[in-house]
Specification:
By secondary structure, the protein is an alpha/beta fold. The chain is built from 7 helices and 13 strands. Mean pLDDT is 76; it is low at 8-29 and 260-264.
Length: 301
């Protein structure tokens, strides 16, 4: 009886695939089924963004899981539903698929992240790298009207931010020129005070040395020590006086083409008093009167 049951027992199914509409559908719960669902999620997202999407077969896809077309643009996508970081091999597959399918764009869309090698290779091969959660409205693959509006708004905000930074840099430059102007005006008086101080120091040192000579004449050693101290004081004072340099003009952080630069014979320098840009000859130094506030100032171009 047991032998008869063993002979007539139904054959156990060994394959994990069922076929439907010429596509192999993996059994529910397998890793292949999860990967296929991920591809459907990517396709649905691209379809919302204005692409006409086609899923490739589960095998023989030549490194391409999703093909999307929008006008004259054609996108091939390599999908990786991995928990870890995706490496450079996926980038190479997407790059090869772009050439095989004569596409204009290639992308790798994953559920996790990317390795540094993948990022470097994608930058060189011009392959888009995107996690699925970053495939949102206004992203680089969004071809819908709303996405175009969002990108224009972002570009406008970026331009406004750059303009604000440029104006802030100009204001900071103007403040530096104002400080430089005040320092240049105070420099002659400060130099005179330093000269008077140095002269008084030298006179006091020489007088003190003379008095010490008169007092310590019988003591040659004390005379030598006092002489060395006097020489050190005089040398330090002279060195400090000569080391004092005039204030340096602030550097203009703007590009060369905006401020005149090395390719122009003239340079735009802001007025120290009112901020008006003065078109002055390059490589000169002198006093200039502003045409707006009618005040003079020393400028070095």
């Amino acid at each position: 009886m047991a032998r008869w049951r063993q002979q007539h027992r139904p054959a156990r199914r060994k394959r994990a695939w069922s076929f439907h509409a010429d596509e192999a559908v993996p059994r529910e719960g397998s890793s292949s089924a999860q990967g296929r669902r991920f591809e459907h999620s990517v396709a649905a997202r691209l379809s919302e963004f204005g692409w006409e999407v086609t899923l490739t077969p589960g095998s023989g896809d030549f490194g391409c899981d999703v093909i999307a077309v929008c006008g004259s643009e054609k996108l091939v996508v390599q999908c990786k539903n991995w928990s870890g970081a995706v490496g450079y091999d996926a980038v190479k597959e997407a790059y090869a698929a772009r050439g095989f399918h004569s596409a204009t764009h290639a992308a790798v869309i994953v559920s996790g992240g990317f390795t540094n090698a993948a990022k470097a290779g994608a930058a060189r091969l011009d392959v888009h790298l995107l996690p699925l959660d970053r495939l949102t409205a206004g992203s680089q693959l969004d071809r819908s009207i709303q996405g175009e509006r969002i990108r224009r708004q972002r570009a406008r905000q970026h331009a406004e931010g750059e303009e604000e930074q440029r104006l802030a840099a100009l204001r900071a430059l103007h403040d530096e020129w104002v400080i430089y102007d005040a320092a240049m005006q105070a420099y002659p008086a400060q130099r005179g005070r330093e000269a008077v101080t140095l002269g008084a120091t030298l006179l006091a040192t020489i007088s003190g040395l003379w008095v010490a000579i008169m007092i310590l004449e019988p003591n040659p050693l004390g005379f030598a020590v006092l002489g060395l101290i006097a020489i050190w004081i005089i040398g330090a004072g002279v060195a400090a006086f000569r080391a004092r340099k005039p204030p340096k003009a602030p550097l203009d952080p703007r590009p060369a083409q905006e401020r005149g630069g090395a390719y122009s014979e003239r340079r735009a320098v802001p007025c120290w008093h009112c901020g008006t840009l003065l078109n002055l000859p390059r490589g000169r130094r002198g006093s200039v009167t502003c045409s707006t506030c009618d005040r003079r100032g020393e400028y070095a171009t």
